Amino acid sequence: MTSKLDCIFKSHWWRTNDVISVVLLLITMALGLLLLASAGGAVAEKIGLMHYFFLQRQIIFLFVGIFVMLILTQFNEKWIKRLIFVGFIVTLVLLILIPFVGDSTKGAKRWINIGSFSLQPSEFLKPFYMGFLAIMLAQLNQRINFKMFLLCLCINAIVISLFILQPDFGMAITNTLVMLSMVFIAGLKISWILLLICCLGVFFYCGYIFFPHVSKRIDQFLSPIDNNNYQVSKSISSYLDGGFFGKGPGEGTIKYVLPDAHTDFIFAVAAEEFGMIFCLLLIFCFGSFVIRGFWNLGKQSQPFNIFASFGVLMHFSLQFIFNIGVTLNIFPTKGMTLPFISYGGSSIIAFSIAAGIFLNVSKSNFNQTTDKRKFLFVKAEI
Questions:
Q1: How confident is the model at residue 14 (pLDDT cuts 50, 70, 90)?
Q2: What is d(CA 163, CA 154) in angstroms, rounded to the nearest whole number?
Q3: Pairing mode, if any, of strands 108-114 and 117-119?
Q4: Beta partners for 105?
Q5: CB 378 within 8 A of CB 186
Q6: DSSP letter string, 249-313
């Protein structure tokens, strides 16, 4: 028995992959299942489904996601880039088709029904878009030039346009912020950054003026009392009611009054039923994965690996922060899931693809450092 275990831990996979990051992700997924077991039942019964409907489906999604994630760690660089390119084109095509064949829910048309499964292409675009930008930026042998900068802006404009048609203003903002962070580490000049900030200001203003659901959410955020922001007020009260140790599993009430308790506001359920200690544990597990990833970026040697890892980690970080921030009324409501925790097949599998790409490009060869490259303003070896 001991010899078999020794063979497993000495195998090629264990020696070349970041096992600690994998374990942190698995712990996060397990904590998410614990939350969904409590929050999902109340939502399911409210809409006439079996008590454990969401939990059972989430377990299936997680098994598929873990399988996809581990498979992707075995791809070589050439096949990873091919997957990213094909995935980016396919998801763009699906986003183009959404206005014509998509199903509308809560005023947004973001899903394509395939049997009993609702596919959300915008979720799958995230890992492939970050990877596609990484492939482009990795072609540079110096700091980003104006031609590449304009190309990144044009591609991002196409992506944003497809998001706005759904509409999905929050996803458009998140992807734009990640794109800007990636071109920044590629050496974007300060003057261009200031220009982009001005453009973003105009973009936000136009979103507020021309999209009623955006203006409504921002008004509710700025004046929650005047606009009777029911979801956020209930969410904040859950933090106060939960205290340090929570009311206990299944004892919370917020899941009965919020329609998105198993998705957008699942962290509020955690605060009420399991308390602040559990929330800090959840943040610690996911935060450790992200911080470990950023820390190891300085040990990476290939520009593509650096850009791809950075893009994935930035997207994970922003979505995690935005989701929790909404429940605390730090940000306006955006309809974003909590990575690996909120219910949703598209979200789970898309994040698993992103994690698989990250684990693939951050294998043990990141220990092979070189003086010719650095993380910020990435330099490539000619």
A1: low
A2: 14
A3: antiparallel
A4: 108
A5: yes
A6: TT--SHHHH-TTTTTTTHHHHHHHHHHHHHHHHHHHHHHHHHHHHHHHHTT---HHHHHHHHHHH
Position 120 scores a pLDDT of: 84
Q: Which helix H or strand E contains 155, and what residues bound it?
A: helix 146-164
Pick the closest to residue 185 from 306, 269, 292 (CA basis).
306
Burial 217-251 (b: 16+ CB within 10 A, else e): bbebbeeeeeeebebbebbbebbebbeeebbeeee
Phi/psi of residue 207, nearest 5 degrees: -60, -40
Q: How far is it, in rounded angstroms, from Cα 341 to Cα 42?
A: 17
- Where is average pLDDT lowest: 22-26, 173-177, 206-210? 206-210
Give tens-digit pLDDT for 147-196: 888 888 889 888 888 888 777 777 888 888 898 888 888 887 777 777 77
Instruction: Measure the CA–CA gap between 216 and 229, rounded to whole angstroms.
Output: 10
Tell me the β-bridge partners of 113: 118
256: pLDDT strictly greater than 70: yes
Q: How many angstroms separate the CA atoms of 52 and 361, rounded?
A: 37
Contacts of 209 (CB under 8 A, 6+ apart): 215
pTM across the whole model? 0.85
Q: Which residues contact 88 (CB under 8 A, 6 or more apart)?
A: 125, 128, 129, 131, 132
Question: Checking DSSP bridges between strand 103-105 and strand 108-114, what pairing results, if any?
Answer: antiparallel
Provide the terminal-to-terminal Cα distance of the chain, rounded to the nearest Å.
49
Structure tokens at 382: 């000619």
Q: Which H or E element spans position 118?
A: strand 117-119
For 147: left if phi > 0, alpha if psi spans -120 to 50, otherwise beta; the answer is alpha
